[in-house]
Amino acid sequence: MDKISPQGYRRIATEEGWITKELMDRYQALLERGDHGDPGFQSLWGFFGRSPSQRARDLLERIQDMDARRIADMDATGIDMQLLMLTSPGVQMFQPDEAVALAASSNDQLAETIARYPTRFSGLAAFAPNAPEAAAQEIERGVKKLGLKGALVNSHTQGKYMDDAFYWPIFEACEALDVPLYIHPNTPSPQMVEPFLSRCLDAAIYGFAAETGLHVMRLIVSGLFDRYPRLKIVLGHLGEGLPFWLSRMDFMHAGIVRAGRSPGALPLQRKPSDYLRENFYYTTSGMAWEPAITFVQQQMGFDRVMYAMDYPYQYVAEEVQAMDALPLTPEQKKMFFQTNAERIFRL
User: Fold this and answer.
1) What is the CA radius of gyration of the chain?
2) Distance from the CA of 310 to the CA of which of 225, 262, 282, 322 falls in 20 to 30 A?
């Protein structure tokens, strides 16, 4: 049995980024060639991958380190376990055959890391969305053979969203395996990103939430959760803003459907907010702010909100102490830091 920390709960951080050297080398090659066609990728990794600034250098080192430095950072902030996920855009910059191979390689390396530090790390399987059948097989391999705890997609794949039936094998696999799919942000797609770039709004400051919130709304309105009612989705950053729109999205969607305004918005079996309350779970990554956390816990349920740091993008030692001080009962605090994550990800 794992040792319980003095505060009475283990602190499990549930959205913590990493990347293989293999994949980072490919990112660097894409940046060098400049022919990838994705301005958001250029903005994000052109900075973190190539800038001489201290922030970029620190992140580039931390995100590739799966040993001493990462463990030391966890110990310094009181984090007992990280749930690791392949950082954005993962393998999704690449064509299907290469993406499938890179996903398998990264999952193998992740499983090796977890085997070295089984009490400190767990993780989610990467996959290639642009090869859905192979993606479903890789998710199954990751869960059944490698012991990974679900799957991760970095939102859109080269501007394509997963509300299309093309991607259904991925959702079928997650539902059949009864594992969660974590939808992590990507920079806005090439057709969306231009107004964000000139003010550097394309990444975590706003673009991530705008892009991922759009993706989730497309999934809900498509009827995906009527087709796969047991599907479990996890969102970071307290739901990318969507919990604050529950009333308005219900009202407006009902009006659109009644008016027959669009063939892309058909009747659903439940209200949009119902899916967000019943099929979704939420982490606090990058949102260590008590008023927002309290709101999402009250609206979505204390059993659906989990702690995450968003390491190494947002490595702030003081936030762990702030989260320890949240106005929660001892039972609710243990749910927040430990038992929700253990239940949802089967840790």
Assistant:
1) 19
2) 225
Contact residues for 283 (Cβ-Cβ < 8 A; gap 6+)? 14, 15, 234, 235, 236, 237, 238, 305, 306, 307, 308
DSSP 8-state symbol, 279: T
Choices 3.60.40.10, 3.40.50.880, 3.20.20.140, 3.30.70.360: CATH for 12-345: 3.20.20.140
DSSP-derived 3-state class of residue 188: coil
Distance CA 226, CA 281 (A): 17
226 noted as active-site residue:
no
Burial class (CB in 10 A: 0-12, 13-18, 19+), 245: middle
Q: DSSP letter string over 124-155?
A: -EE--TTSHHHHHHHHHHHHHTT---SEEE-S
Set 73, 163, 202, 310: catalytic member: 310
Joined together, the tokens standing for residue 182 give 């974590």
Kindly list the distances between the CA atom of residue 191 and the CA atoms of 55, 112, 216, in Å, as whole numbers in the listed order.
29, 38, 17
Per-residue pLDDT of 284-330, as tens digits, reads: 999 999 999 999 999 999 999 999 999 999 999 899 999 999 999 99
